[in-house]
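Deliverable D2.4 — example input (structure tokens):
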């Protein structure tokens, strides 16, 4: 049996310890990724009621921005009270009562980490984690000696995985 090269041994070591180091964050990204699949539904969400005093005399768009509802539509106007799907707003006093479907605290924090934008400090973590995953992809090719049967089988699985990824990407 051929002896693994120094590069192969170093890649195995880096792969192993980076895998241990990133185990927690990988679990967070896996769980939050699954949760995000259901973001267009109320799966795992609970209803939370809010009563706030915001600026008075807001129009529909400004009201939606104030309560964090991009799709807010006024359904009924009764004097100073504007009624929308999940609540009402008193234009004269600025009092708004509404309900929202929200994820539990921990899942909400996990999904916000997963969706961090470049304007948020956590985007560095997302980039670092993405580079770590890319390293896992590349270093896996140094796990086994080229020319061995397990490496050849690995190449077949790699080809099948790439084809599956391309099919899923373009359907």
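Example output (designed residues):
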């Amino acid at each position: 049996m051929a002896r693994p090269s120094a590069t192969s041994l170093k890649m195995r070591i880096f792969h192993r310890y980076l895998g241990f180091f990133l185990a927690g964050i990988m679990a967070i990204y896996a769980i939050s990724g699954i949760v995000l699949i259901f973001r267009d539904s109320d799966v795992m969400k609970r209803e939370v009621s809010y009563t706030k005093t915001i600026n008075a005399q807001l129009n529909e768009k400004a009201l939606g921005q104030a309560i964090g509802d991009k799709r807010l539509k006024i359904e009924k106007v009764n004097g100073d009270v504007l009624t929308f799907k999940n609540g009402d707003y008193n234009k004269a006093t600025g009092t708004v009562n509404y309900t929202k479907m929200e994820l539990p605290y921990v899942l909400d924090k996990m999904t916000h980490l997963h969706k961090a934008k470049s304007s948020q400090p956590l985007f560095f973590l997302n980039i670092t984690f993405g580079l770590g995953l890319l390293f896992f992809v590349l270093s896996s090719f140094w796990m086994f000696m080229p020319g061995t049967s397990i490496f050849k089988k690995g190449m077949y699985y790699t080809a099948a995985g790439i084809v599956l990824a391309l099919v899923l990407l373009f359907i």
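The chain has two domains: 6-41+105-170, 46-102.
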